[in-house]
Write the structure tokens for this entry.
Amino acid sequence: MHSSAGTEIGGVQRLAVLTSGGDAPGMNAAIRAVVRSAIERGFEVVRVRDGYQGLAGGDFWPMGRREVGGIIQLGGTRLGISRYEPLKTAQGRERALRALREHEITVLVVIGGNGSQSGAAALHAEGAPVIGIASTIDNELYGTDISIGATTAIDVALQAIDLLRVTAASMKRAFLVEVMGRHCGYLTLMAGIAGGTEVIALPEVDLEPASIAQTLCAAYDRGKSHAIAVIAEGAKYDADTLMQYFHEHRDRLGFELRVTKLGHVQRGGAPGVFDRMLGTLLGAAAVDAAFERRYGTLIGMRDGKPTGTLLAEVAGRTKPADTRLLELAHVLAM
Ligand code: F6P
């Protein structure tokens, strides 16, 4: 057996599953795949409510195949979720490790993003048998090409951009859409390219307010009927700063700027086919890893295949957006 936290009692393998961090569309598909694949493999399955907070508090409950029925099409997470800061402390982790021992858990599956997988890596380093599943709308997690929830979140942003284009083309107002993604511009870049916006501002590349204004003016000068900018929430000049700039320079620019912050709306979409399949494939692969006792691994999608990467390699690392696509976006917005 791997560790004291993973003590096997009378040959029974008991798998606990939790979701952690920010909810992401497709998490339910992953939960369903974990629960049903694990039962098929002979595990007893328990769910942990509300992420690491529930883990530390010993909030465990047995879970059967029927409990994950009718959830594959739902956004959010059936298990509940939290951001649990005490896991960053030795004391908080000790509570979690103790709960795993007390509930005789032989493997813990953590469905979540960057912070959650860093937590999983820390628990594993301290003796817990843990397997991670890559899930965050931000898609900045190292160890996966794409994470559960990202494509559905992009679709939500795209719907907003498409709707704003209708009103933007009717009156001479520029629109700015602020997109989530924390310190990573992936969601914004994809939404900007697929939405055909005039400006894409990312945390990875600084764009000055004056340059954004000039690009929007130039769009009108070229005869465009609309001028739309997408700004990542983590960009150096955020939506509020830009709104202030446009307000101050309104007379000179000759048009107004209206701002829409998508915020948490972006996490609430029903998972599209990609996120349902991704959740399903990664969930099943995580159970394969649990069965083969490949603990301390993050299961992500790499080169089109579910692939394991050591949690120790994933912890604290992020993957920036591919800014080479900005050049293409610029050409296509002409
Ligand atoms: O990590 C997912 C995410 O939605 C980020 O895009 C965003 O910055 C953050 O979570 C918001 O966090 P919270 O839901 O805790 O407000």
Observations:
- The first helix runs from residue 27 to 40.
- The chain is about 40% helix and 20% strand.
- The chain has two domains: 14-149+271-314, 151-268.
